[in-house]
Amino acid sequence: MNFSQKDIQQIEEKGLSVEQIEEQIEIFKRGNVALDIQAAATVWDGIFFYSEQEKYEYISYYEKQKDQLEIIKFVPASGAATRMFQDLQVFLEEFKPKMESLPEYLKRTNNKNLKLFFDNIEKLPFYKRALNNARENQPGFDELNRYSRKLLLVQTILYSHGLGLSNYPKGLVPFHDYTNYVATAFEEHLYEAAKYAEVNGEARLHFTISEEHKEKFEAEFDDIKSRAVKKTGIAFKVSYSFQDPKTDTIAVDENNEPFRTKDGELFFRPGGHGALIENLNNQKADLIFIKNIDNVVVASKLDEVAEYKKMLAGKLLKVQELCFSYLNSLETQKPSEKNIQGILQFIENELFYTFPEDFDDLSEENKIQQLKSRLNRPLRICGMVKNEGEPGGGPFLLKMKNGEHSIQIIEGAQIDKNDPLQKQIAKNSTHFNPVDLICGLRNYKGEAFDLTEFVDSETCFITSKTIDGKVIKALELPGLWNGAMAKWNSVFVEVPLSTFNPVKTVMDLLKPSHQPT
Prior knowledge:
three-stranded antiparallel sheet
């Protein structure tokens, strides 16, 4: 690949090398690596389910230990609210008020989401602000007919002359109206952290955000801090980080040639949420809760969410304790064949991992090394909810190239849709990953793992995008809870759908989980 001096300068300014870009282009030429999916993970075959009694036993186990741990809540929050308001953007582009009325437009397009929006606009948490803004900026607003008022309210909600919410980071969009105050998703994460991630009166939260929005987040925290402290009795320590430009990936055209902008420059895209493994790696903690910025609930539903978070954390501590115990015994004493078989059983039954078939042929020394290598890894406990139509990654049992079998969270783009068997297995999936993770990031000696050593680089995947009307290929780095954690030890546990309440569109704010009672 021949790059000009200008290209090389652009590449190096991102902290990348020409060799890295050439490697990325080779991936485009190679195409996605097909995964060998053996089965969809289901309850008791890859996914654990616990009774109420067991749930409270895990909660108790966590609560007894948490004040001796360093705990952080890690929240990916770099997403903009643009997609959240996409239906409204399309509506404003298509609707011609001089040619048809709003009811006629809704009837013609049969857009049920828009009808839901307009029928319930008064229930949105930013309705009052939008109404006041429209009255101030539009003379005679109250004299307009109700459909014209609603059209102006949409424009006020979205655009900079009004609230400008479509250009906000999603974390700072008002989510819940409690009458005496309105809470953003950012604020709700503070209250949630106070319920399960507090240690000795302090809750630590880390948000990954776009650098351009840092001042807005800091201002929001300054505005709500005293209220959050007063409501919870907890002190909050909040930090931020940004996705490193060196994790950007080059885009190519349909011929796998570097795509260029109208100015002739190379075109780079953010490498997806998998790039955040670097941000996670920089956190110093025993235990980290991971949850997306838009997955929050109103205060009245928070206790149930917190209970299941603590249950998952208790499960992690129990599994981790066993891993550490086995590792210490393997290091300090010569295990018997019975001990080795007991550890193998734990790995197979608890971590759903099986060694290649030639494991039994290894020498005792090599068996011990294999067991230590398998146990001495970052550990994650992942909540899984039943698939009832909501999007999300799926849990599957995979066969790896070296013959080992392990449990993984897979993106849809990683499944070979041209293989009928793989397609059928994917269709049989019963659960999905709502990004509900508890992570143990230290080893049995108390040392922090280098998380970059446990990434499966082959699980990056290629997607198709459109830029200025032209089709391009984009390269997504191994996803944060997919390939970036592929070499971790994983345990999947079923949690109720009520713990998953994402706001993907503005209409989601009208669901009961986002309506204060």
